[in-house]
Amino acid sequence: xxxxxxxxxxxxxxxxxxxxxxxxxxxxxxxxxxxxxxxxxxxxxxxxxxxxxxxxxxxxxxxxxxxxxxxxxxxxxxxxxxxxxxxxxxxxxxxxxxxxxxxxxxxxxxxxxxxxxxxxxxxxxxxxxxxxxxxxxxxxxxxxxxxxxxxxxxxxxxxxxxxxxxxxxxxxxxxxxxxxxxxxxxxxxxxxxxxxxxxxxxxxxxxxxxxxxxxxxxxxxxxxxxxxxxxxxxxxxxxxxxxxxxxxxxxxxxxxxxxxxxxxxxxxxxxxxxxxxxxxxxxxxxxxxxxxxxxxxxxxxxxxxxxxxxxxxxxxxxxxxxxxxxxxxx
Length: 330
Known about the structure:
Elements: E1 20-23, E2 40-44, H1 47-55, E3 63-65, E4 99-105, H2 109-122, E5 126-131, H3 138-148, E6 152-156, H4 163-175, E7 181-184, H5 196-202, E8 208-212, E9 219-221, H6 225-242, E10 254-257, H7 258-263, H8 275-286, E11 291-295, E12 297-299, H9 310-329
Parallel strand pairs: 1-2, 2-3, 4-5, 4-7, 5-6, 8-11, 9-12
Antiparallel strand pairs: 7-10, 8-10
């Protein structure tokens, strides 16, 4: 799927090219990755094998899971809109836990509907859209989607106050309801919808799962040198004060256990910009939470404008040392 491209109502409506699969088993540690053609994909039996492939450099968009597929059995029911596009399962992954995805929005009208549709192709989950009174009428579109789909909910906020307050309002709404897993995700397709099931599966053994750009297999796409430098320096700065236990402190693609968020005393969180992600990860560390990072490819937005600015950078420079010194004093 092209970033920001709307999905068809049914994949039977498009002529999908056949997919040739290369079966990979975790039992075979000697296999080597290959350069896949646009009609090829890997076929594995479980998420553990997916993580091993991605850590070695495979594209998660070109990996199919078929737990019951014998070595010479029929291929799984995956489709692709065009040659080389991300695979889409015949039905979205469904987990035992109840899941909600919190989507903060500000002027995301060009991305919102396509992302909601894409999420539904990969994961059975509710979606909470937290809109900060977007001038481009993202909130009105969110209301339309909510009326159309029972799993889509909308929380309207009167004005833009930053990423942190938007997420905190969303978390407050979520924690008043009985969701087991709470996912953070950007609305601009920077985070791949096909990686959502990987986050949820990772939460079976971790209280917090972070989609990480800075572990083996992770990375960024379509970033210029300045953006890479800012991100790398930012994470190095945080690790200098708070420690190396997390590689991607600022990553915003996450899955939390409900119980962990309840323990975090969210009403005392101060951060407003992107350092909000650092503060919540730091609180998880202090609570002794089991934290896992899985590799992702972060893609720079195609539609809309980035909301990373100098106020967020300055806030990070000031607030991260405060977190460290406050922890040391306590």
